[in-house]
Amino acid sequence: MRLRLAAAFVLLATPVAANPPDIAAIVETHILPGYTALASDADALARAAAADCAPGNAELAVAYHEAFDAWVRVSHLRFGPSEADDRAFALAFWPDPRGSTPKALAALIKDQDAAVADPAAFSEVSVAARGFYALEFLLFDPQFAGGAAPGDTCALIKAVSIDIAANARSILEEWQGGYGALMSAPGNETYRTPNEAARQLFTSLATGLEFTAETRLGRPMGTFERPRPNRAEARRSGRSLRHVTLSLEATGELANLISGGDAAVAQAFDQALGRAAALDDPVFAGVADPQGRFRVEALKQRIDAIRQLLAEEIGPDLGIAAGFNALDGD
Amino acid sequence: MADRRAFLAGLLATGLAPKQGWADAGSPAYLSAGRKPDGTYALFGLGADAGIVFELPLPGRGHAAAAHPTRPEAVAFARRPGRFAIVLDCALGREKAHLAAPEGRHFYGHGAFSADGRLLFTTENDFEAGQGIVGVWAADEGYRRIAEFSSGGVGPHDIKLMPGGGALVIANGGIETHPETGRSKLNLPTMRSNLSYIGLDGRGIAQLQLDDGHRKNSIRHLAVAQDGTVAFAMQWQGDLASDLPLLGLHRISQPDAALMPEAGGRRLNGYLGSIAISDDGQAIAVTSPRGNLLQEYRRGLLAREARIADVCGVAMAQTGFMATSGTGRIALPNGGAVTHAIAWDNHLIRI
Questions:
Q1: CATH number, domain containing residue A294
Q2: Which residues of A113-130 are buried (b: 16+ CB within 10 A; e: fewer)?
Q3: pLDDT at position B1
Q4: Does residue A329 fall inside a structural domain?
Q5: DSSP labels, B206-217
Q6: What is the pTM assigned to this prediction?
Q7: CB–CB of A93 and B189 under 8 A?
Q8: For the residues of B181-203, what is the DSSP string, one character each?
Q9: CB contact under 8 A, B310 and A8
Q10: Residue A4 is assigned to a structural domain of this protein
């Protein structure tokens, strides 16, 4: 208690970080390369779908996996261009607790919706029917991939892929066309001080790790009495664990840049990634039995340890309180 | 104190006790949950001078409390997604009743009594359906659950009784959660918050929804003035560079809310934790534990700001407002402060 009190007063007295992170370097080496890769891989996905949109097309599957990888690597950067026009939601509608994605896709097919053939109109349909998670249903779920209307599914695969590519391109263009400069050189209406930019980056790092721990892992884990393996992220295409690994790699890179190469932070990420590599349970099917669940839980604990380290050691340096109420979120 | 409590308990057992009032609990002016230095949690009664009048243990971290309008009874709610709430007899210093959320429901941490104190209303999550519920409990019948109705939205949080006692106002935060995934937000792409006015019988009376630009603004906490003004505090779920107002005022008869631009999201780090309003509706205080800021408004204008680390709980005092912090500090309306070795939790409840 006394320690916490002291930390809180120090924080108020020194609002400027002791070792401010190099924001321009983070934009240049972490954010822009991530969105460049997403735009390019999403473009390749749209081309593969245009060439052959049959769900069984092997080249299309490869393009899907590569573009989805590129998305997961930037999925923690939820601010600015990805939030504008709800682009990130349109790329990634998950979790989906009410099963809205298959319902929305089935409705588009049943209604023979004209939006499927019109990219401008498709960009206005429900976010539940757009993005990578919708595409996964179309390519890998028997309801669609092996369904009775292969022509309709094929057209929808094309529409979703084109929409993903357009969204990814818009995000990159906005980063390159001004937003990157606003963040790299604060003192503008969006980022008035370097500290505001650093806080935004730190928040996206913390939120990204929270999502990986609480949602990517927490959702399939469910409770001990009732594990929920069917809720694993992107399980239909076998990507659940892969998303955890990719997001840990990406957030680890950002954490390293924000913390100025802090050794404890790097070690905490290494330990979590080591756990993930040793898990050998690609869609967390193991959560259904106690031993498998224990192993997934151990991975989650490693990520929670990173979160705690960042909240208590790195955040306060940036003027982000780790207070009793500030962290409560209610 | 303990002796007096034992004496009172004895009197009660023999049926000789006079009717108990809040004076029998040491006349606390406020309630707040908090964490003690040994890591345990308790509900505290605080005097007008911020001194601790009583302390009753809680089994886990609390959130808000509801004070019975006449009897010295407080309902302490567990932190979301809690499955229990405890009714404490603050005069005798013991648990009077235990509220367990029914199957498929959990509490959100807030509740409100009817004006006569016979009914308690609690905000709850029907988590399989992802819909907000108001649970109704008969306070005079050992807090038996007697009914429930829709809260008018998703993720209800704060709930207050309107002046006159004929209606409730509920902050439906719009965010779907499921206890299996703790506090992770499941529906941000489609979230929609609202303010719902509902009769005590569950009948919908009016509803306020903010425009599309505020879609990611989650209405969480409420304060109601005697003239019917409802002040609401929000938490922003989007980009931190957004400066949308987090404080709004509404009256049930009006189609729109008045938003206060000086309560911009940037200064408050996108997050208001608590809100209080004076009886005449002219003075409002909001806290941001993430912005370490207390703001006070008079007649719709920002009148005062105070930087207080981890400030969150706030309640109206005789003059001005009293605010509590996770650091243990209690800021008094006269500018002074008292510090206890207690991490004060989110809300300070005026009795």
A1: 1.20.120.660
A2: bebbeeeeebbebbbbbb
A3: 43
A4: no
A5: EEE---GGGTTE
A6: 0.90
A7: yes
A8: GTT--S-GGG---EEEEEETTS-
A9: yes
A10: no
